[in-house]
TrEMBL record:
Pfam annotation, one family: F-box
Membrane-crossing segments per the record: none
Record lineage: Eukaryota, Viridiplantae, Streptophyta, Embryophyta, Tracheophyta
Ranges of residues in domain F-box: 33-81
InterPro entries per record: F-box-like_dom_sf, F-box_dom, SCF_F-box_component
Name of the featured protein: F-box domain-containing protein
PROSITE patterns: FBOX
Domain of life: Eukaryota
PANTHER family: BNACNNG10540D PROTEIN, F-BOX PROTEIN CPR1-LIKE ISOFORM X2
SUPFAM superfamilies: F-box domain (SSF81383)
Length: 355
């Protein structure tokens, strides 16, 4: 039996409106043993790590000086980023200011709408809690931004080296001209790596950001000409290829060895997905003008392969399949017949000025 349902998403406002209140947390002998203000710094640190950036920026940082001092440390920022589960930033390519963030919390899907209009450029990729934008209307100028703080800063049109903290071009002379064309597509980022691949690529270009070496990695034999959907889990690179209309093979890349491992397949058929999906597609608001020519394609992972997100293109319908529980949920995008960018992203407290 299908366990899915159509979600009624509640959107939250990201803007900050309250000034900081310099109230001192009361502690010592007058504090109750059950008072959170009397907790040791280490325990308070661990508790605050579980809050999403919105709650930290809008509420927690204003509670008292003690909380503010814990939150404003670089150690807390880095640990919070490491504990943040990867989600998906979803942006309409035609109406770019309509941008949302999709994630899971306690097994439930949450969609948060960005309240500001800073994202009028095309989102290109995400790395370490920061989003990279590409403005094709302004000579491909790039910007780095944090959706949690609405901060944006222009980037030079070069690669940044983490070794000596400078901007310079990386060496690609060992790659063929045909291979270098892949650099024009949107890259995928994982921990310590940047990857480029197309849907029919027989190979993947992987940049190790620490060594600044780009390697060409072949896909498994027999999959070179197949249609493949390359997706980042946030920690590793995967690709999916169709077995049937609603089932896919899954392969995961080991970044250390450059070898692919076949993972358990995704199959929605046993969950009676087809009948429920057909009912939703027959809905007039989701029906494309040319009939039932709808393609279900994987667009991203949530929480490191905990759930797979699929888009019924060209409708607004999206499906979320929980790999562990095999539960299925549905949600809708803003518009039918629109192109959408799905960028894996960790919502964070990172300030681009600290990078």
């Amino acid at each position: 039996m299908i366990r899915g349902r159509k979600l009624k998403c509640r959107y939250t406002n990201h803007g900050r409106s309250r000034p900081y209140n310099h109230r001192i947390c009361k502690g010592g002998k007058k504090s109750s043993s059950m008072n959170i203000e009397s907790l040791p710094d280490e325990l308070l640190f661990d508790i605050l790590l579980h809050l999403p950036p919105r709650d930290i920026y809008d509420s927690a940082v204003f509670v008292c000086k003690k909380w503010r001092s814990v939150i404003r440390t670089r150690k807390f920022t880095c640990e919070h980023l490491r504990h943040s589960p990867p989600g998906l930033v979803i942006q309409s390519v035609n109406k770019r200011e309509q941008t949302s963030f999709l994630t899971t919390r306690r097994g439930r899907i949450e969609i948060t709408k960005f309240a500001h209009n800073d994202y009028k450029c095309l989102l290109w990729t995400s790395c370490n809690g920061l989003l990279l934008e590409c403005d094709k209307e302004n000579d491909y100028a790039s910007y780095i931004a944090n959706p949690s703080t609405s901060q944006r800063s222009p980037l030079p049109p070069k690669y940044y080296s983490g070794v000596d903290k400078s901007w310079r071009l990386l060496h690609t002379q060992h790659l063929s001209l045909a291979t270098r064309i892949i650099f024009n597509i949107r890259p995928l980022t994982t921990e310590g790596f940047v990857h480029w691949a197309t849907t029919k690529s027989a190979h993947v270009l992987s940049l190790n950001v620490e060594t600044e070496v780009i390697k060409e990695i072949l896909v498994p034999k027999g999959y070179g000409e197949k249609l493949k959907y390359f997706l980042s889990t946030g920690t590793s690179l995967t690709f999916l290829t169709n077995i049937k209309e609603f089932s896919w093979e899954v392969w995961e890349l080991s970044q250390e060895t450059g070898k692919w491992t076949k993972m358990p397949s995704i199959d929605l058929e046993p969950q009676n997905f087809r009948s429920e999906y057909s009912k939703l597609i027959r809905n007039r608001s989701l029906m494309p003008p040319w009939g039932s020519n709808v393609t279900v394609k994987p667009v991203g992972w949530l929480s490191c392969r905990e759930a797979l997100v699929l888009h019924a293109f060209p409708t607004r319908l999206c499906i979320v399949y929980n790999v562990r529980t095999r539960g299925i949920d549905f949600f809708e995008l803003n518009h039918d017949f629109d192109l959408y960018a799905f960028v894996v992203h960790r919502d964070s407290l990172v300030d681009f000025r600290e990078c």
